[in-house]
């Protein structure tokens, strides 16, 4: 059974799906670690799904219920700021010119919206779990 099928059949619409995914990038030696466009594109795909994307916890924490157009400059800047605050950045020296950057991102989506996510969103995710009133339940594909 696919992860999206499990989410839509086993959990209530207001439970929260937590998706953790790692992104690896090469940055210049003197560059500060930051959120890349590929991370923002992934966040847009995850947080923009469903009928009520503005109600996803990650969006709600950022925009406090304002209806901001998904993918707009304001939306991307807001989500980038949220990810800067909540993501774990690990920088490792690679050579004299570049560093390796590992960014661990956590996104929270309501189950009602996660039902619309494509299965490709879950591929490569480090962890997918659902937070319910009864606790957190890991979800894996079979």
How would you sum up this structure, described in words?
This protein is α+β, with helices and mostly antiparallel strands. The chain has helices at 3-10, 37-47, 57-63, 73-86, 111-114, and strands at residues 16-28, 88-93, 98-110, 125-132, 135-138. The chain is globular, with a radius of gyration of 16 Å. It is built from five helices and five strands; from the N terminus they run αβαααββαββ. The chain has a five-stranded antiparallel beta sheet with strand order 2-3-1-4-5. The protein has one domain. Helix 3 (57-63) crosses helix 4 (73-86). The N and C termini lie close together (5 Å).
What's the layout of helices and strands?
Elements: H1 3-10, E1 16-28, H2 37-47, H3 57-63, H4 73-86, E2 88-93, E3 98-110, H5 111-114, E4 125-132, E5 135-138
Helix pairs in contact: 3-4
């Amino acid at each position: 059974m696919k992860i999206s099928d499990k989410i839509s059949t086993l959990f209530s619409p207001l439970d929260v799906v937590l998706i953790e995914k790692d992104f690896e990038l090469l940055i210049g030696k003197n560059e500060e670690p930051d959120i890349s466009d590929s991370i923002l594109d992934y966040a847009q795909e995850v947080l923009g799904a469903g009928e009520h994307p503005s109600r996803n916890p990650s969006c709600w924490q950022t925009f406090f219920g304002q209806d901001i157009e998904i993918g707009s400059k304001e939306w991307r800047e807001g989500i980038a700021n949220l990810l800067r605050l909540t993501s774990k950045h690990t920088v490792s020296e690679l050579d004299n010119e570049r560093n390796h950057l590992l960014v661990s991102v956590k996104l929270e989506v309501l189950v009602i919206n996660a039902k619309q996510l494509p299965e490709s969103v879950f591929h490569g995710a480090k962890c997918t779990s659902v937070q319910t009133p009864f606790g957190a339940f890991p979800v894996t594909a079979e």
